[in-house]
Write a structure and sequence with these properties.
Shape: elongated
Number of helices: 8
CATH topology of the largest domain: Rossmann fold
Helix content: 10-25%
Length: 361
Amino acid sequence: MGNQLTLKNVSKNFGDFVAVDNVSIDIEHGEFLTFLGPSGSGKTTTLNMIAGFEIPSSGEILLEEQDITTVPPNKRGIGMVFQNYALFPHMTVINNIAFPLKMRKTPPDQIKKMTHAVLELVKLPGFGERFPNQLSGGQQQRVALARALVFNPQILLMDEPLGALDKKLRDHMRLEIKHLQKKLNITVIYVTHDQEEALTMSDRIAIMNNGRIVQLDTPETLYSTPAELFVSNFIGESNTLAGKTVSSEDDLMRIETSQGLSILARRGEKTNPDKEVAVAVRPEKIQIFLEPQDKPDDIDNFFEGRIEETVYIGDANIYRVHLIGEMFVDVKIQSTPSIHVYKPGETVTVGWHSRHCLALN
């Protein structure tokens, strides 16, 4: 159906501080897009400009090709769910949900019908006469979601909506929100600093750092093919081995570490071989062998090492392997009844395919 929302060269300055720096992005109808990044990366400021709570210092925001850059929040037809829910404590659940409808002067009979319908949608029928302080955190979150959805917004914005919940409830609500988004076919723009949350919920993720989008891709692409070292370190766990470029041909680079290890790696999309580089390899992509001859012939990076530490995490073991000098790698091996469990002090060989590691700046 094409783009529903477009940001064109949007920037936001607070005095001399650049909070958002020349961000451009197209968001499609029915898409679940997440802004992910550390604190201070500009993701919430970007969301606030989409909502209308902040006006860009420069650039344009288009909704259905109409310029809404300076349109007031209540005129944009956009729903918002905040981290702290922002429920009115003196109002019942039903009145909290009805509030945006009353502000739009919706007839009372329609308000009653719409509020009860959305309570059913978020699985809170019969809770209409309770007050927020009589609800659990998860229930309050559902009320906030219902209030944001009751007027059928074109887009739903969510700013760290699960941050106040415990892990088990947070995991459950992720699925609830995703299922609801698919059921309603509504566009969701989500802000979080939680990488797992972003990976499990999003169609695409915009990684932000220092006010800029450094990579915009699907969760799978971001994890398997990060464009730069910041993304590799921010998404998932990654071993990073610093070195310098010895040779570069097509999409492969030979990297030599300061301790003398020679590593063959794929060249990252933005990698400049003339700058400092680091090889990034995920712990689950590294294999461990008791003897060098045990390794498959097609593994083109293999090194001797020593098990420094073993950590059991239920479905896997994490091994800290000392390679040379101050260089270590973490290796994640799935637990099975027949698999060998390595002990600290054991001498091993570790290896990985060049296609499973990236040379990044």
